[in-house]
């Protein structure tokens, strides 16, 4: 501390030899206290509050520097905080110390700081708050985030030119990192303050690397502490605008507070403990925290934010949220995109951006302030029109305009970035990625269709809860009944049960779904979406939802197959298998479904035969018409001498079954899936006694012993 004798009110108080001294009229000095001085007057441009930086010597002779709110120094409790921290202020000298500090404030260095980030208005002019302000104000960031640029602008651009340009996925991430600055500018024309984007993919997809690319425009690109030195020469203790999902919702929203026009990243959503993320997404996309009360029941001021928020996870946020239409508009999800070409590519991007970051964002903002908001809005409107046209070609729905507005923010940032940095980005490739995301999410946006598919699946998995209409009331509990036919299946479901069924699929807004079903003629109703029906025999009339389900069709094997015309049935290929002797050829491919062969029934002459013990290897089946279903596959057996086989003929032939050719077997005999099983034919006269010829004790078709080569597989 140096002697400063230029005080306005009390020039007789000054610092000398590490003490605060007072000079009397005769020029003699008297020690008042250990030296204490006021170095800086700090104005916070966010709220106009004043802080003072005070330096003093403690009892050990060490110099201490503290920054305190002005009221804690000159308030009613004079210098209590300073005394606590070790300043030499006693009650008998406190008045003189305060007189000296008040004079020192008038000549102390004045500076401005801020803790909020992004666009703001200061003295009627637009500025942008970053590590230092951009615009007609000089202020420095005073906070915990590591947003101080590192390296040089040229070094950061070298990483972009080498590892990002030429890769449309990385270029999309680069544009997303700049897109947050456009949201506060277009806020008067757009109905959304925040652009929410989610990267879904495996651990090796490069999603976190893409998030690093985006956030490096304005801050240190990692969730961990930076290895960059701070002002005092130490190591930064905090990360930048990229943080993990881990923590409470209050801490999550607090990290977003007072950031107006930045891109922020929430990495690894799987660390969050919320089962349903719909409310979290709605709050983030709304840019405002829900109102809360203080401990005195006074409404707190709600925290606000705007910009772009990117989240990453190995799962879909939409699938982990309650099903409603609005969430699909507010969140753009990119699923299973390969953001990097290899592990080496990802490593090069991360290492390069950690050496040089925080330069491209401020330079981009400088250009926005130069061209003015009108030109920025004009570029965005042009891309709104173009994105709408492209998305409509891909498949229009009622949300296409709102989604196009959000995509236009990304494309406008891409166009402006080309001008600012004198680079060429793959706008067509970025548009393709956006269009792919739109198409992939299209079925999920059809909440009514997804709910109907969920209901069909639930009925198929729980048939006992939906017995036929009019059946006896022998079921313990039912959710409804089924009626109609295979061409027109109708489900009559109790309203409360329908809500429970839909809730198992995260469909919470049942009324919206019922409205859509009614408009699409899926729901038959009079009023309140219900009709009165008697569900079970002897039951009372009950109000139910009458829901028309997609038709059921049958294939050649008479198996019921539910078809959904909304989705094409994929081609199913049956793997080739080796043919056994006597086996009919199989069709190798089935275009719609795999069908079992249809059993052909032929009349069999009535021939009596003596009762004999049935072999365990004999397959005998009869249908309702008492007509026998016989396998066409004749298995040759070695008979003992004297075996007699009666003449039993099939219609249209005089030959015995064992004399039929393969073609005749295929055309005249019965086709059965059990192509390799033995059979018995009525009318065969079995010998009274059969002498075994082989040592194996397995019994054959006619009671004879079989060798390994004679035995067939089941």
Mean pLDDT: 77
- Please state the CA-atom Rg, rounded to the nearest Å: 41 Å
Number of domains: 4
Number of strands: 26
Low-pLDDT regions: 231-237, 554-602, 612-694, 696-704, 706-714
Helix content: 25-40%
Fraction in beta strands: 15-25%
Number of helices, counting only DSSP H or I runs of 4 residues or more: 17
**Biggest sheet record:** 7 strands, mixed
Shape: elongated
**What would you call the structural class?**
alpha/beta
From the N-terminal CA to the C-terminal CA, the straight-line distance is: 102 Å
Summarize the entry for a quick read.
The protein is an alpha/beta fold. It contains 17 helices and 26 strands.
What labels would you give this structure?
five-stranded mixed sheet, 714 residues, alpha/beta, 4 domains, single chain, disordered C terminus
């Amino acid at each position: 501390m140096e002697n400063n004798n230029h005080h306005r009110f009390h020039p007789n108080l000054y610092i000398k030899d590490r003490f605060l001294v007072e000079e009397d009229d005769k020029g003699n000095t008297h020690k008042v206290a250990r030296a204490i001085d006021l170095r800086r007057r700090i104005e916070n441009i966010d709220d106009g509050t004043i802080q003072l930086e005070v330096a003093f010597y403690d009892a050990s002779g060490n110099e201490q520097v503290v920054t305190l709110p002005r009221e804690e120094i000159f308030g009613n409790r004079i210098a209590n905080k300073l005394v606590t921290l070790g300043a030499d202020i006693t009650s008998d000298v406190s008045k003189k110390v305060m007189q000296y500090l008040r004079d020192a404030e008038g000549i102390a260095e004045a500076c401005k700081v801020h803790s909020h980030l992004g666009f703001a208005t200061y003295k009627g002019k637009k500025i942008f708050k970053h590590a230092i302000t951009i615009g007609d104000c000089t202020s420095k960031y005073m906070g915990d985030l590591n947003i101080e640029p590192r390296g040089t602008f040229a070094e950061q651009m070298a990483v972009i030119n080498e590892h990002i340009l030429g890769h449309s996925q990385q270029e999309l991430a680069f544009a997303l990192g700049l897109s947050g600055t456009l949201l506060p500018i277009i806020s008067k024309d757009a109905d959304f303050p925040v652009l929410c984007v989610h990267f879904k993919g495996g651990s090796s997809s490069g999603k976190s690397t893409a998030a690093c690319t985006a956030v490096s425009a304005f801050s240190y690109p990692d969730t961990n502490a930076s290895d960059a030195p701070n002002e005092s020469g130490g190591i930064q203790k905090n990360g930048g605008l990229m943080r993990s999902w881990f923590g409470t919702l209050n801490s999550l929203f607090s990290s977003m507070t007072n950031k107006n026009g930045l891109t922020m990243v929430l990495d690894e959503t799987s660390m969050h403990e919320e089962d349903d993320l719909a409310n979290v997404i709605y709050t983030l996309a709304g840019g405002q925290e829900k109102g809360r009360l203080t401990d005195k029941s006074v409404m707190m001021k709600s925290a606000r934010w705007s910009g772009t928020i990117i989240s990453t996870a190995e799962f879909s946020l939409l699938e982990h949220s309650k099903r409603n239409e609005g969430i699909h508009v507010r969140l753009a999800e990119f699923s299973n995109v390969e953001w990097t070409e290899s592990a080496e590519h990802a490593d090069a991007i991360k290492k390069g951006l950690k050496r040089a970051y925080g330069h491209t964002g401020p330079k981009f903002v400088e250009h926005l302030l130069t061209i003015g908001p009108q030109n920025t809005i004009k570029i965005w409107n042009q891309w709104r029109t173009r994105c709408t046209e492209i998305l409509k070609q891909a498949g229009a729905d009622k949300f296409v305009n709102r989604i196009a507005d959000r995509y236009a923010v990304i494309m406008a940032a891409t166009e402006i970035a080309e001008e600012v940095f004198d680079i060429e980005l793959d706008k067509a490739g970025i548009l393709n990625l956006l269009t792919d995301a739109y198409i992939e999410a299209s079925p999920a946006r059809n909440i009514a269709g997804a709910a109907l598919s969920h209901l069909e699946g639930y009925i198929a998995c729980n048939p006992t809860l939906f017995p036929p209409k009019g059946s006896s009331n022998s079921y313990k509990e039912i959710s409804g009944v089924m009626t109609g036919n295979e061409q027109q299946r109708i489900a009559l479901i109790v309203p409360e049960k329908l809500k429970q069924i839909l809730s198992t699929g995260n469909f919470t807004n049942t009324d919206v779904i019922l409205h859509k079903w009614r408009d699409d003629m899926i729901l038959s109703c009079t009023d309140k979406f219900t009709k009165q029906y008697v569900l079970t025999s002897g039951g009372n009339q009950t109000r139910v939802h009458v829901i028309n389900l997609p038709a059921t069709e049958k294939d050649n094997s008479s198996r019921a197959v539910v078809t959904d015309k909304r989705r094409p049935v994929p081609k199913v290929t049956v793997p080739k298998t080796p043919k056994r002797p006597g086996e009919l050829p199989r069709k190798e491919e089935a275009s719609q479904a795999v069908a079992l062969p249809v059993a052909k029934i032929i009349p069999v002459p009535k021939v009596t035969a003596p009762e004999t013990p049935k072999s365990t290897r004999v397959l005998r089946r009869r249908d309702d018409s008492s007509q026998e279903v016989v396998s066409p596959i004749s298995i040759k057996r070695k008979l003992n001498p004297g075996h007699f086989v009666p003449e039993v003929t099939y219609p249209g032939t005089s030959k015995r079954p064992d004399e039929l050719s393969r073609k005749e077997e295929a055309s005249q005999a019965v086709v059965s899936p059990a192509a390799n099983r033995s059979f018995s034919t009525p009318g065969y006269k079995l010998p009274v006694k059969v002498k075994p010829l082989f040592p194996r004790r397995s019994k054959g078709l006619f009671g004879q012993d079989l060798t390994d080569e004679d035995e067939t597989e089941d």
